[in-house]
Specification:
Layout: H1 2-13, E1 41-44, E2 51-57, H2 69-81, E3 91-94, E4 100-107, H3 114-128, E5 136-139, H4 146-156, E6 176-179, H5 183-209, H6 217-228, E7 234-239, H7 241-246, H8 250-256, E8 264-271, E9 278-288, H9 308-322, E10 328-338, E11 350-352, E12 358-360, H10 368-383, E13 387-392, H11 396-402, E14 407-411, H12 414-427, E15 431-433, H13 438-443, E16 451-452, H14 461-470, E17 479-483, E18 489-490, E19 500-501, H15 506-515
Parallel strand pairs: 1-6, 2-4, 2-5, 5-6, 9-10, 9-13, 12-16, 13-17, 14-15
Antiparallel strand pairs: 3-4, 7-8, 8-10, 11-12, 14-17, 18-19
The structure holds ligand BES, manganese (II) ion and zinc ion.
């Protein structure tokens, strides 16, 4: 009886119950299983006699010495009858020939841009054969082309299926073998670089696809720590909310204050070279509801991937570190969840940044630029980076201007812009430069603070966002900003990007950092 009373009193007076060890805001997580395995990539000098055979075709000429003469005659007849010419993007699927379950002719054409054509062909093959149980042999690549095919294949076979529990089929883990003359050199090229790049893209896509009840600032940090465990040359620093309050990081704390999930600033440093690091500073809003300036409900779920910029910085650094690139680089993830709530910041609030600058928060939905303000200032003051690149799903406006073909590039310095543009072209993640104009800075002036985060009806939206971020980068630091709101989510599949989180940014940042020159 007494025991009951005590329990009742406790129940009535204690705070809402949270099981011990469960972080604030946590429900029941949907899964503890991993995504299913994909096909391992292998290299060999001979194609298998059975399974699936893929011929990469530049024209009508069939690679010789692979099929027996009877099969070869049949395939040649099919090529002629189908008027197959090996044009880039064309394909012909044949079944029931010899011991092969399937023979695919995949056109890669000829001419310039070979890397792009090879990468896309690899991705196309991976997606076509996604549900095939058999091992795959790919014939027709030169030894120095094989790693590019392998990269495309790896990017194209990405899948996120860890939450499927009903009717889940076990996809094939039979290898995709690329047939080449020089196995040693092809394998070395793949292992020293491409494989790490694919791992980086996979990490970024996973983080961006995960729902916001699974990935929030603290769990983002935990996942990234896991991904970097044991990788040499890497140092990780994390500021929690108490530390950020002490440092007066009013924008990172402010954006997160409506959420039960506390904000974090995560810095992943990789030292493989000499000199000041290149800093990649990403927007890491693990969910963007808009806050008190709440978003309309249609499509709001996509805001689970509003941390794609931060995810691409850690993906790029994972690639650089795992491939032991001779560079110094750091990924900086500005992590917060933007939620409405009794303690959320309000439109009209004035917040201060790390350096003491003041911001009038006109619209709580312009939160990405807010968290980047503190992150940029902290990184510049404490690391004096050789260059700073922001990457963020910052504005809907950039998608209106550029669609999903280009990310928006902003830069003060033409040398930085040229290097970023070249990097994008080389890897197949393209950027288009948009203007920074002194009038944009004027538009963002606040009546009562140093700057405001949004101008009512302000245009051009993507440039105004860039101008705001640039206000928190000292003019002596070479700076670029990539607005990826139009490219981070693929509504339909392309050759190397299955529908969903694209992982956009890992490849261009990896390439930019490797080649960066002041
Ligand atoms: N995360 C959004 C931008 C976004 C929109 C990303 C669509 C991906 C798809 C960002 O925080 C935002 O809400 N931007 C506002 C800015 C405005 C309030 C100044 C926008 O673009 O409308
Ligand atoms: Mn927003
Ligand atoms: Zn946002």
């Amino acid at each position: 009886m007494r025991r009951h009373m005590i329990a009742l009193i406790l129940a009535a007076t204690s705070l809402p119950a949270l099981a011990q060890g469960v972080p604030a805001g946590s429900g029941v997580e949907p899964s503890t299983v991993a995504n299913t395995q994909t096909r391992p990539i292998a290299f060999a000098t001979r194609a298998a006699d059975d399974g699936i055979l893929v011929f990469l075709m530049r024209d009508t000429a069939l690679p010789t010495g692979v099929l027996d003469s009877a099969a070869e005659t049949v395939v040649k007849a099919a090529i002629a009858n189908a008027k197959f010419e090996g044009k880039d993007g064309s394909e012909l699927t044949l079944r029931g020939i010899g011991r092969h379950a399937r023979i695919d002719l995949v056109g890669i054409g000829s001419g310039s841009d070979a890397a792009d054509r090879l990468r896309r062909a690899g991705g196309r093959v991976a997606q076509q054969l996604r549900n095939e149980p058999h091992p795959v042999s790919i014939v027709g690549a030169a030894s120095d082309e094989a790693a590019t095919i392998a990269l495309g294949y790896s990017l194209g076979q990405y899948r996120f299926d860890r939450y499927k529990t009903v009717g889940k089929s076990a996809p094939s883990v039979q290898p995709a073998t690329i047939v080449v003359g020089d196995v040693r050199s092809a394998e070395a090229e793949w292992k020293s670089r491409g494989a790490a790049l694919a791992e980086g893209v996979t990490l970024t896509r996973d983080l961006s696809t995960e729902p916001a009840n699974v990935i929030y600032p603290e769990s983002f940090v935990a996942r990234v720590r896991e991904a970097f465990a044991g990788v040499p040359g890497v140092k990780i620093e994390v500021l929690d909310e108490a530390a950020m309050r002490r440092l007066n990081m009013g924008t990172l704390v402010g954006v997160g204050q409506g959420s039960r999930r506390p904000s974090r600033l995560m810095l992943v440093q990789y030292s493989g070279g000499s000199g000041a690091p290149v800093a990649l500073v990403g927007k890491g809003i693990t969910f963007d509801s808009g806050g008190i300036s709440i978003k309309p409900n249609s499509g709001m779920w996509e805001m689970k991937s509003d941390m794609a910029g931060a995810a691409s910085t850690v993906g790029a650094v994972l690639s650089l570190a795992k491939s032991r690139a001779p560079v110094n680089v750091m990924a900086v993830a500005a992590l917060a969840e933007n939620m409405p709530g009794g303690n959320a910041q309000r439109p009209g609030d004035v917040v201060r940044t790390y350096s003491g600058k003041t911001i009038e928060v006109m619209n709580t939905d312009a939160e990405g630029r807010l968290v980047l303000a503190d992150a940029n200032e902290y990184v510049i003051a404490n690391y004096r980076p050789a260059a700073l690149v922001n990457i963020a799903t910052l504005t809907g406006a950039v998608g209106n201007a550029l669609g999903s073909d280009y990310a928006g590039l902003f830069a003060r310095d033409e040398a930085v812009a040229a290097q970023m543009t070249a990097a994008g072209k080389a890897v197949g993640e393209e950027v288009w430069q948009l203007p920074l104009h002194p009038n944009h800075d004027k538009t963002m002036k606040s009546d009562i603070a140093d700057i405001k985060n949004s101008a009512e009806g302000g245009k051009p939206g993507a440039s105004l966002g860039a101008a705001f971020i640039g206000y928190f980068v000292d003019p002596a630091t070479p700076w670029a900003h990539l607005d990826i709101a139009g490219v981070n989510w693929a509504d339909s599949s392309d050759d190397v990007t299955p529908k969903g989180a694209s992982g956009w940014g890992v490849r261009i940042l990896d390439e930019f950092v490797r080649n960066w020159k002041r």
